[in-house]
Write a structure and sequence with these properties.
By secondary structure, the protein is α/β, with parallel strands linked by helices. It has two domains: 78 residues; 121 residues, Glutaredoxin (3-Layer(aba) Sandwich). The chain is built from five helices and six strands, in the order ααββαβαβββα. The protein has a six-stranded mixed β-sheet. The radius of gyration is 40 Å and the shape is rod-shaped. It holds the Pfam family DUF3105. InterPro entries: DUF3105. Keywords: Membrane, Transmembrane, Transmembrane helix.
């Protein structure tokens, strides 16, 4: 066998098993197509996940907004609803005076008062306060909680916690009052036998900075 024939046989053997250029191009094209399909699938998946997240956020935001509106509507309805047993008093004077005032109600519900108001930002006083200063706080929209010796320790504890959590309210003992617990706002008063009476919460809802307020938004934090 000649040398040319031997070289041809060697070349044939060395090329055996190797893909042809055409096969390589086809394989590369196939790989690229598969990669493009995978990219499309990933993009579709990402878009789907993002859409679900956006929908969930929108839905959650809408639910939160609806829940907040529902709670506000309930609060507004409670504020408008009458509280059983409340007494109201009209035509109360509002002069600033430096002298003692003889009030017809016990505790007083309004009238002439001292130029200085009591700190009524959820303050619980352990001793009786001055009527004339307390009435000025009522003018600013505060609710005044008072109690006498018939109030139990649980009553006092419950009312104290309620007042401490409520700006524009204050609390003090009032030994001379007839009712066990009295809730007073400007021109408005309710007497109950215990702190567990549901009207206590109703009174707070309706009259803390309520429609009876003579000076809406006035400060309640400057102490006497």
């Amino acid at each position: 066998m000649g040398s040319a024939s031997k070289q041809s046989n060697k070349a044939s053997k060395s090329n055996a098993g190797r893909p042809s250029p055409t096969d390589r191009r086809a394989r590369i094209a196939e790989l690229r197509a598969e990669e493009e399909r995978r990219d499309r699938r990933n993009k579709i998946l990402a878009i789907s996940v993002a859409s679900l997240l956006v929908a969930a956020m929108i839905g959650g935001g809408a639910w939160i907004a609806l829940d907040a509106k529902s709670k506000q509507d309930a609060k507004d309805a409670a504020a408008k609803a009458p509280v059983t047993g409340v007494k109201t008093f009209d035509n109360l004077s509002r002069n600033h005076v430096q002298t003692k005032v003889s009030y017809p109600q016990t505790p007083p519900v309004g009238g002439d008062h001292n130029p200085v108001w009591l700190n009524c930002m959820g303050v619980v006083y352990d001793k009786p306060v001055v009527n004339e200063n307390a009435v000025h706080s009522l003018e600013h929209g505060a609710v005044w909680v008072t109690y006498n010796g018939k109030a139990s320790a649980d009553d006092i504890k419950t009312l104290s916690e309620k007042v401490k959590a409520t700006p524009y309210s204050f609390m003090s003992p009032y030994p001379d009052e007839q009712g066990t617990v009295t809730l007073t706002a400007w021109g408005t008063q309710l007497t109950v036998d215990s702190a567990s009476d549901p009207r206590v919460g109703q009174f707070f809802t309706k009259y803390v900075q309520g429609p009876q307020t003579q000076e809406p938004g006035a400060s309640c934090s400057t102490a006497q």
